[in-house]
């Protein structure tokens, strides 16, 4: 199957899932809820999504500077938007998006691929960590005040696993843990195995891997730069929290703040679902979370999920496409 046919196949799958979700949730009720939504709250939802993109571009710019990719903030914003679009087009959700984005950045700046991949990976790690932080806060609040009950008890182990995994990822990538493991594995494999005609490719992969991990270690060696960047990442997620809050108000649902926090935190797992931009699968999973944690019908939950995505996903695709076309035509200006 050609690359174009493969993309078309996944787009059709994503569209089919989305249409199926609307149909199963009672499409007539869905249409009534969606078209009866308050335009003012929808506008606020979109603004919240744009706020998150702006804050994420600040994170990207800080990591670019930390890894010696010298460009203006305006160019960092354009790259973030273009990268968001490329990530949305990746056939397997967010999997595989980072190398494409890193290649795009290295081809349009003076940076090397390891520099670009390290900055993008560090940015994604920084921007993912707040979802675990806010999820933990929501869990602790609901456990103390008992606002959700047994449902929380069922997901506490999963949140604990995510928290441990996040801390482990930070250690492995920013503080040399993975670099040490890579060196050990390289010595073990190199001492007892040969790859024949593939050996040059293996050596090239190992060399790039060492450079990427070395650059990632540079991030961990600058905690005074990383800590403020992590704070910006946490501020950015407030945009997603606000987007869900206003999406619920738009359809007349009651957004309980701590539960909104929890749903947004849990929804980050859905971004790794196997469709382009997680379209279809994300909305289905998000609607399921809303039904689980809020007293809303399926049609209302589906409407909220789609409004939330209009605010948090659509701006990145639209502005990202414009930025991508602009970068292809005009390139980047230096610092």
Walk me through this protein's architecture.
The structure is a single chain. This protein is mostly helical and 335 residues long. The protein has one domain (3-330). 80% of the residues lie in helices and 0% in strands. It is built from 14 helices and no strands. The chain has helices spanning 3-24, 27-35, 39-66, 73-89, 97-108, 113-145, 150-174, 177-192, 199-220, 223-250, 257-267, 281-293, 298-312, 314-330. This is UPF0104 family protein.
Question: Which secondary structure elements does this structure contain, and how are they paired or packed?
Answer:
Blueprint: H1 3-24, H2 27-35, H3 39-66, H4 73-89, H5 97-108, H6 113-145, H7 150-174, H8 177-192, H9 199-220, H10 223-250, H11 257-267, H12 281-293, H13 298-312, H14 314-330
Helix pairs in contact: 2-13, 3-4, 3-6, 3-10, 3-13, 4-5, 4-14, 5-6, 6-7, 6-9, 6-10, 6-11, 8-9, 10-11, 10-13, 11-12, 12-13
Number of strands: 0
The helical percent reads over 70%
**Whole-number total of structural domains:** 1
- Principal-axis shape: globular
Largest sheet: none
Q: Given the structure, what is the number of helices?
A: 14
Can you give the mean pLDDT?
78
The span between the termini is 43 Å
Structural class: mainly alpha
Q: What is the radius of gyration computed over CA atoms, rounded to a whole number of angstroms?
A: 21 Å
- Summarize the helix and strand pattern as letters: HHHHHHHHHHHHHH
The low-pLDDT segments are 184-189
**Beta-strand level of the residues, as a percent range?**
under 5%
């Amino acid at each position: 199957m050609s690359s174009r046919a493969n993309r078309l196949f996944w787009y059709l799958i994503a569209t089919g899932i989305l249409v199926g979700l609307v149909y199963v949730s009672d499409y007539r009720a869905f249409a009534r809820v969606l078209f009866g939504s308050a335009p003012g709250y929808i506008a606020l939802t979109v603004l919240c999504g744009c706020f998150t993109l702006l804050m994420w571009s600040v994170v990207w710019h800080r990591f670019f500077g930390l890894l010696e990719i010298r460009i203006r903030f305006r160019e960092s914003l354009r790259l973030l938007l273009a990268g968001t679009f490329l990530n949305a087009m990746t056939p397997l959700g967010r999997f595989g998006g980072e190398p494409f984005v890193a290649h795009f950045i290295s081809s349009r700046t003076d940076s090397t691929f390891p520099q670009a991949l390290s900055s993008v990976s560090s940015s994604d790690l920084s921007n993912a960590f707040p979802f675990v932080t806010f999820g933990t806060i929501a869990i602790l609040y609901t456990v103390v005040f008992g606002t959700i009950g047994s449902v929380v008890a069922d997901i506490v182990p999963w949140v604990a696993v995510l928290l441990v995994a996040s801390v482990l990822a930070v250690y492995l990538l920013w503080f040399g843990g993975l670099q040490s493991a890579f060196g050990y594995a390289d010595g073990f494999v190199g001492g007892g195995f040969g790859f024949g005609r593939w050996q040059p490719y293996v050596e090239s992969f190992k060399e790039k891997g060492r450079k990427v991990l070395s650059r990632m270690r540079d991030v961990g060696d600058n905690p005074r730069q990383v800590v403020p960047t992590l704070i910006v990442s946490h501020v950015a997620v407030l945009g997603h929290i606000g987007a869900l809050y206003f999406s619920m108000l738009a359809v007349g649902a009651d957004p309980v703040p701590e539960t909104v926090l929890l749903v947004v935190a849990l929804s980050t797992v859905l971004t790794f679902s196997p469709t382009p931009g997680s379209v279809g699968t994300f909305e289905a999973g998000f609607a399921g979370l809303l039904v689980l944690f809020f007293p809303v019908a399926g049609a209302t939950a589906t409407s909220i999920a789609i409004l939330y995505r209009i605010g948090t996903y659509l701006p990145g695709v639209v502005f990202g496409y414009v930025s991508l076309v602009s970068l292809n035509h005009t390139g980047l200006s230096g610092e």
